[in-house]
Amino acid sequence: MAMTTTGAPGRGWLRWLVVAIPYLWLIVLFLAPFLIVLKISFSTTAIAMPPYTPALDLSAGLGALWEQIQEFTFDNYIFLTEDSLYLQSYLSSLKIAAISTFLILLVGYPIAYGMARARREWRPTLLMLVILPFWTSFLIRVYAWIGILKPEGLLNQMLLGLGVISEPLNILPSTLAVYIGIVYSYLPFMILPLYATLEKLDETLLEAAADLGCPPIQAFWKITFPLSIPGVVAGCFLVFIPAVGEFVIPDLLGGSDTLMIGKTLWAEFFSNRDWPVSSAVAVVLLAILVVPIMLFQNAQKKASE
Amino acid sequence: MRRGPSWFNITAITLGFAFLYLPIVLLVIYSFNASKLVTVWGGFSTKWYVSLLSNQGLLDAAWVTIRVALLSATLATVLGTLAAIALVRFGRFPGGTLFSGMVYAPLVMPEVITGLAMLLLFVAIGFARGFWTLTLAHITFSMCFVAVVVQSRLITFDRSLEEAALDLGCPPFKTFFTITLPLILPAVVAGWMLAFTLSLDDLVISSFTTGPGATTLPMKIYSQVRLGVTPEINAICSILIGIVATGVIIASIVTKRREVERQRAERLALQIG
């Protein structure tokens, strides 16, 4: 992007400052922490504060840093491969996130489509109604489902009252409840980008197809769906990546047999107090997600240009 | 041509919104339940709201949460707006790809990773954990959301006004505050509100980065939810939902009115011109 205005004094340093302040902030508080996680994942657990050795100490100079690097060990990563809990957690997280993403697409697409085809004067209100639950607390939305799904909860009371079932269903806690929780909590993340692309869709294309005798369902698969792919892609990334590392939903709605890596990392850190192993778990999780994250960033960057 | 909404679209919207809203509505209804058994209706009562007022631990947590949210949302809005300007206006600069990467990554980064990483940073540099580490962490993740919101406004922004001011010799600093900022203000306000609610809501990153004496409301709610569902939690949640819903609705009305006024002013300006 070329700067069209020139000759304004002071523009140079001002421009430099606008970039430098957020840049430095993110380097110190977002990028540097990841390098520390990486470093600690090669450390050994110790009964001390901080509970790992060698402790990071930059004040000792570069020579000392080299000595610390020589103390690095791959033990934590080897440990991750030895205990099947970790491998199963990673696989199960990916599976739960992938199935949930597909379910959310299935549920979210008709809603976004209905919104985009609603009368023009209704659309801002509908959009606002999708955004509103997104603003209310994540924790509260998950909590709301506990009251509905638990054995003496509202769903079981209703089904028992109607005589559909004779004894309460044990949905909570279970992996099924985790799916319900993820679909519910992440639905707006899918609807918003889908709506944004569907709303911009040129309706004359569909009219042309109809005039030429194309049945509506075929027109949908040949025109509407392919044109909405950017929204589908953005929505899927926005749902899938955070869902893989989800902690609150599997912890509150899932049973002890619902393995998810976010839960495993949390337990490793807060219950076992093993910082080096939790760091290794985080590094591997990041390595798994780095490709989808970069694809997401590219899509975002393209959309903003 | 205007086709009426098909029954398929109406059904999809109705079922979709029922799914989105029913759990929240039920939660609010049961906060007025006189019975201690959350799911058995025992008559209307506001006693759980009254009992909240005498729960000192909860009130303390609410106070910490509000202070962190106000402070972090304000600083995140400043940093996020700068980041958005850097991204849109100075698209190509050395390290620009790294910069845009760092702005977009926190949007999808699993919170357990961000939380752990920030905690390890604070421990490594020997920063005492508590109110300030909590605030720094909240600023960092919410500034990226602010940046995305402001960025989308800046992209559709007509730059001719800004250029006119600069050509007429208005200093860049003054141009920003008299021309640019008022025009992107709705997005900046929306960004602030988003940052505020993200901070109000956060559990995972807060749990990692907090220290003694800085327990937030979500952390308090979480520890109580683990013990079981109580009408008292329903009452706190209902209050939070009420605050957020009121804020969002007021903001959207204000934005709409501003938009109408702006369009009228533009029409007027065209007629005069």
What strand order characterises the main sheet of chain A? 1-2
- Low-confidence regions of chain A: 1-10
CATH fold-level topology of chain B: MetI-like fold
* Number of E-state strands of chain B: 0
How far from one another are the termini of chain B?
A: 35 Å
Domain count of chain A: the total is 2
From the spread of the alpha carbons, the general shape of chain B counts as globular
**Low-pLDDT segments of chain B:** none
Order of helical and strand elements of chain B: HHHHHHHHHHH
Question: What helical percentage do the residues of chain A reach?
Answer: over 70%
Which CATH class of chain B?
A: Mainly Alpha
* Quaternary state of the chains: heterodimer
Q: If helices are DSSP runs of H or I spanning 4 or more residues, what is the number of helices of chain A?
A: 14
Sheet with the most strands of chain A? 2 strands, antiparallel
Strand percentage of chain A lies at: under 5%
The CATH class label of the largest domain in chain A is Mainly Alpha
Strand content of chain B: under 5%
Commentary on this structure:
Chain A is an all-alpha fold. Chain A folds into two domains: 19-73, no CATH class; 75-304, MetI-like (MetI-like fold, Orthogonal Bundle). In chain A, 73% of the residues lie in helices and 1% in strands. Chain A has a two-stranded antiparallel ribbon with strand order 1-2. In chain A, a hairpin with a 6-residue loop joins strand 1 and strand 2. The longest helix of chain A has 33 residues, at 84-116. Chain B is mainly α and 273 residues long. Chain B has one domain (56-272): Orthogonal Bundle (MetI-like fold), CATH 1.10.3720. Chain B has helices at 7-30, 47-53, 56-89, 96-108, 111-124, 131-155, 160-167, 172-201, 204-209, 217-227, 231-272. In chain B, helix 2 (47-53) packs across helix 11, helix 4 crosses helix 6 and helix 6 crosses helix 8. The longest helix of chain B is centred in the last third of the chain and has 42 residues, at 231-272. Chain B is globular. The two termini of chain B are 35 Å apart. The mean pLDDT of chain B is 85.
